[in-house]
Amino acid sequence: MEDTTKKPLVIMPCLDMIDGRVVKGVNFVDIKDAGDPVACCQAYCAAGADELAMLDITATVEGRKTLVEVTRKVADAATVPFTMGGGIKSVETAEEVLNAGADKISTSSAVFRNPSMIADMVKAFGAGKVTVAIDVAQNAALPSGYEVFIDGGRTATGKDAIEWTKQVLDYGVATILPTSKSTDGAKTGYDLPLIRQIRALTDADIVASGGAGTLEHFAEAAEAGATVLLAASVFHFHLIGIPELKKFLAGRGFPVRL
Hints:
Elements: E1 10-18, E2 21-26, E3 29-35, H1 37-47, E4 52-56, H2 68-77, E5 82-85, H3 91-99, E6 104-107, H4 109-113, H5 116-125, E7 130-138, E8 146-150, E9 155-160, H6 161-170, E10 175-180, H7 192-199, E11 205-208, H8 215-224, E12 228-231, H9 233-236, H10 242-251
Helix pairs in contact: 1-2
């Protein structure tokens, strides 16, 4: 298996959005406003973010498409690649978002309900444009100990998360974005066993998501096999600066883009 530690780590602030505003919750609830997406994007680009993630977190449950107009505005402001997700429920929706200026799309609930769509998106746009997000919760009754949740973490599926990940990878997806409900926004650290289980399956990029609270948490995720380090609260509320984080990781021997 490829030595993923040789690739520079990607530092990726995540901008969760509701009604066009950046928000942040804890365990997928307790939502707080965190600012304007374009202003946040500009600040993160200036601070040295490698990539950005923009997620319209209620689009799926509200049955609407992701915010194409916001995508356009962010694309005009962004100086780094960004991924847009939320409400992307068809190849056509994905194409609309990519045409609006997103560099990649992230999809979760729609492709769980219709897995063949993953292959259609990879064929249409290339594997590098498609991220599959997998929200999970711990469930000791399942072989991996994790169950897939959809609809923004609201709906249990009964599906084993690692089995679903294997299925996703079989379609040739280049990036997996797992988020554990138990650690999301809690600032107690990423779900490292989940990252390790996925890394054991693949050389694909793994986005560590949900739980960063300290500099050490980022290093732990990288050691577990994550290649992209995503966080929201610690960046939005200025608990950790991106230059500070990169300097810390470099000091620990991880390759980063300084």
